[in-house]
TrEMBL record:
UniProt protein name: 1-acyl-sn-glycerol-3-phosphate acyltransferase
Domain (Phospholipid/glycerol acyltransferase): residue spans on this chain: 36-155
SUPFAM superfamilies: Glycerol-3-phosphate (1)-acyltransferase (SSF69593)
Any one annotated GO CC term: plasma membrane
Biological source species: Micromonospora orduensis
Length: 229
């Protein structure tokens, strides 16, 4: 586990557990060793904080590549922190550049790390669960690892879009893990990837109870590298 991530587990994580007392269900589905993909709904920027708090192992999150390329003292600190956390840089320009994060995730997964993916490609604008993009399934097949469905509940109320930090007492936080989905040996053509992604989103919906919307969420300013290529 990267040093700064370890420090966060010893400081930030206990603080969040005390302040929010998140409920965790299905932790037995989190593997003790080996690579896996966590694929969940995305309600808030707090999703990453609480997921990292309850999972005992290191999680590799994506971060915008410009955070790794800043200049001056601020840029140096940003690069140091993200590198120390084991983050994977994402090129937000789209196209082949955006897929560099996908390429970087494969060796991490094969090396036994855990990578977090949000199939919706962006935060839900209204609390509903939107159609998933096929990148998570493609990544699982390419790396030969299972996908663990994740359901986050209450994070959108604890830290709504626009809020700078989570607010204790604003909502009850629940993190649910589903049984791993093993797509090993499945074909990776477009139709098969679509079917696997729909299976994944169905499992996430069972964990969250969200209303499902069979269309992609409204796009944000920048594309997500896990969306359909």
């Amino acid at each position: 586990m990267p040093l700064l991530y370890t420090i966060g587990k010893l400081t930030v994580a206990p603080t969040l557990r005390v302040a929010f007392r998140p409920t965790v269900e299905g932790l037995e589905h989190v593997p003790e060793t080996g690579g896996a993909i966590f694929a969940g709904n995305h309600l808030s920027v707090a999703d990453e904080l609480f997921l990292g708090t309850v999972v005992p192992r290191h999680l590799a999150f994506w971060a915008k590549s410009e955070y790794f390329k800043g200049t001056g003292v601020k840029g140096a600190i940003s690069k140091f922190v993200l590198t120390g956390l084991g983050a994977i840089p994402v090129e937000r320009a789209g196209g082949r550049a955006a897929l560099s994060a996908f390429d970087a995730a494969i060796p991490a997964l094969k090396g036994g790390d855990l990578v977090v993916v949000y199939p919706e490609g962006t935060r839900s604008p209204d609390g509903k669960l939107y159609r998933g993009r096929t990148g998570a399934a493609r990544l699982a097949i390419s790396a030969g690892v299972p996908i663990i469905p994740v359901g986050m509940i209450g994070t959108d109320k604890a830290q709504p879009i626009g809020a700078r930090v989570p607010r204790p007492g604003a909502a009850k936080i629940t993190v649910r893990f589903g049984k791993p989905l093993d797509f090993t040996g499945r074909p990776d053509d477009r139709a098969s990837l679509r079917q696997m992604t729909d299976e994944l989103m169905s499992e996430i919906q069972k964990l969250t109870g969200q209303e499902y919307v069979p269309r992609y969420a409204p796009p944000r300013a920048h594309p997500d590298p896990t969306r359909d290529a």
